[in-house]
Specification:
rod-shaped; mainly alpha
């Protein structure tokens, strides 16, 4: 039985080590994600607001980032509204409502993408101390079992199991603290980015409103009637037999 308790404590320590690896992996991944996203958003926002007009801003396809994707969703919505002739419920919105709806949906997509992994950090932060206490309990039980088997409470008998029990508690706390701190930090970052996207979407709607919720088409308009040699030939003067000049 003592060996079983020993194995449970060891499994608990390995579980906490796995939690720690997952925690720091997520911290690195989310940190790189937020740094890259902040840089992309700053670059696109600076370029967008320095554009000459709305049509020039709509041509920025090489930029990436959350703000760029929100703007692209808005421009694509206006293009689809210009090209669509459907009369179903999906296309029954007016242009402003349709634009605001798609901008809001894109912001929610960006927020869900940023929130990926935060639930894991929160779960580890909440459960790691209890996992450590779980190992501590079995470490104490192992020490009591050793005392019963040897009928002695000397330091040599209880030092090992109690030491492992305290190590499990310490590792559980050591895993939980960075998990909770990282979760709170990245959650605040998500809220700040979402607020910036909301502000950009509001400014975008106000800007597009000045142009009647329409953007210029990048495709040149082809004239329906073009000059043709045959038409030019038939437009020459004809003289009927009565001598009067008429156009064909």
């Amino acid at each position: 039985m003592s060996e079983l308790y020993q194995h449970i404590v060891e499994w608990t320590l390995w579980a906490l080590i796995a939690f720690s690896i997952i925690t720091w992996t997520l911290i690195v991944i989310k940190g790189v994600q937020h740094l890259s996203l902040s840089r992309q958003n700053r670059r696109f926002t600076k370029t967008f607001w320095s554009s000459a007009d709305l049509h020039a801003a709509a041509s920025f396809e090489k930029y990436v980032g959350a703000t760029a994707r929100v703007a692209a969703a808005g421009f694509q919505t206006l293009r689809n509204a210009d090209a669509s002739t459907a009369t179903d419920l999906e296309h029954s919105w007016d242009r402003q409502d349709l634009l605001e709806r798609h901008l809001r949906q894109q912001i929610q997509k960006e927020r869900r993408s940023l929130e990926n992994g935060l639930a894991v950090l929160a779960s580890i932060g909440n459960t790691a101390p209890f996992v450590g206490l779980f190992g501590t309990v079995f470490g104490i039980i192992q020490a009591l079992t050793a005392i019963t088997a040897t009928k002695s409470a000397s330091i040599e008998v209880v030092a090992g199991p109690i030491g492992e029990a305290l190590i499990a508690t310490g590792i559980g706390i050591a895993v939980a603290v960075p998990s909770v701190l990282a979760y709170n930090f990245f959650l605040r970052r998500v809220k700040l980015i979402a607020a910036d996207l909301d502000d950009f979407a509001t400014d975008f709607v106000s800007l597009v409103q000045k142009s009647g919720f329409r953007i210029k088409s990048s495709t040149p308009v082809v004239k329906a009637a073009q000059s043709h040699p045959a038409r030019e030939a038939t437009s020459e003067l004809r003289k009927p037999e009565n001598g009067k000049e008429v156009f064909a």
